[in-house]
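User: If only I could read backbone structure tokens as easily as an amino acid sequence. Those tokens are not coordinates but codes from a learned vocabulary of shapes. Could you go through the record with me and say what the backbone is doing? Here is the record:
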Amino acid sequence: MPASASIPRPEHPRPDFVRNTFYNLNGKWQFAFDDDDLGLKERWQDGKKLPKSIVVPFCYQSEKSGLGGDEIHPILWYRRSFTVPKDMQGQRVLLRFGAVDYACDVYVNGAHVGHHVGGYSPFAIDVTLALQDGSNDLCLRVTDYPDCTQTRGKQYWKRGLMGCWYTPTSGIWQTVYLEAVGARHLTQIHVTPDIDRQMATAELALDVAPLPGTQVELTLSFGGETLRTLRTDMPTRHMQVPFTVLSDVGLRRMHLWSPGSPNLYDLTVRVLHGDSVLDEVKTYFGMRKVEVANGEVLLNNHAIYQRLVLDQGYWPDTLLTPPTDDAIKADVEWTLKLGFNGARKHQKVEDPRYYYWADKLGLLVWSEVPSPYDFTRETVRNFADTFLDSIQRDYNHPCIIAWTPVNESWGVPDIYADKRQQATAKMLYHLAKAADGTRFVSTNDGWEQVTSDICALHDYSPDYARLSEHFASREQVEKTTVIGRMSYAKDETPQGYEAFLVTEFGGIAMATMGPQGQMGGMDTWGYFGKAEDEEAFFKRFDEVFTAVQDIPYCRGYCYTQLTDVQQEINGLLTPDRRPKMDVERVKQINRNPLERTD
């Protein structure tokens, strides 16, 4: 479908999984709150006109949706009509949702076609049998209760604002679209690079078992030049196809992906049966290797020092939903301009196009599961489901080098001594290794450590002396209390190979820029008060950076944070992405300590 100025977020939402058939359903929808839960009883799914309107994919709490406000409405209804495009007619039609928070039921022409749970996960429904000629009615019933067993992230569960939690997001918050597929279609293309053998392996999956005689064809290209085309039989739903990334003629060397050289290979996969093309999907991948060994993080077999920034991924008028693709790209560009080589996407499974731009522009990314807060059996399932869904969706992005399942013991608040909560965190670590295995895992980032590839601690001390004292030696960090909290959970000990990073520090608010005074009935804030002017800011900024960079066994850091977010004014940029201080000065202080000469 061609881009249109009248449709918000018109671009294809998944550059890593593209079919030529794409019909965007963003825009104005009918909408209703159902606080008394009357909709099912009165069968609103059967064509009832809803009284309000909303602009999808923006949540009702955001200004851009046309509604706005922080009222809690746990049951929402959406409706719009659509006509299947001519080039999709006669094929199977999938209805795709990028993300709907939190649970939803989907109806087409009054028929229930699907149910989904999970606020950060994509899902697709085959709606072919429910379609009719001409106009079709699409209806959603969404529930999003203020439930702290959900993977909420920074979404506050009450009205207003509190601490470092923000306005929540309910309902549709990523792109909705149609896609046409054949009688058999691909559900997965995961590409695993092996730089040591100059090869990669494509792991493919179909929705159902293939017909006898089905083949799969892979076309690999780089920089617009086709390197090779490989065709092989596909006898089962799941198969692995290894291939070299070198061509028989022409290009003779492998092109690695790294922040300085973000090389990407394109891969087109076609499913064939006789003369028919059953499906065709375009994806891409990067040839890169990530591992942790002997206290070092290695990228492409070389030690790398990570200079990360904490990025919450919120916007003033759209909250969790990026307002435009250009806005996403700009955030990646600002991160690089400020001297960082990576971002820790905090408490949010990000819009896929963020990872796309990080892939293209060369930015390392840590992907983090949004936290629940109450520990129950349901919490364990929600943690695992959200984590696995994020790995499944984002496997091909070379920018993602780390999975972070838990932050600061959120969702497992008694992990220090509670064996079940320790087991939950360890389960998530091993889930990542089972589902992926090509990235490192920071299991409980910041607080009581359990099995992990990283010893990742948070410290917002405001000056050189205190930070230096806390991290005087690695032995002290691993065996004693750091800033009032044990570095390791009870009976847990380091394995000996972990890399150490300070994965949150700084958080310096600057009082003269950004929203000041009262917001949502509370003071704006940063850690250890507010710097009164730019010079006061840089005095603290230089001290804390120098202290962390001087830790001899530290292999990286994550500064809090990229932007102001609502009541938090500790960003380097304002909420509308204007720099609050001299960018070049920030970049000079935020330099690789291994390259320092002073």
About this structure: The domain at 23-181 is CATH 2.60.120.260 (Jelly Rolls).
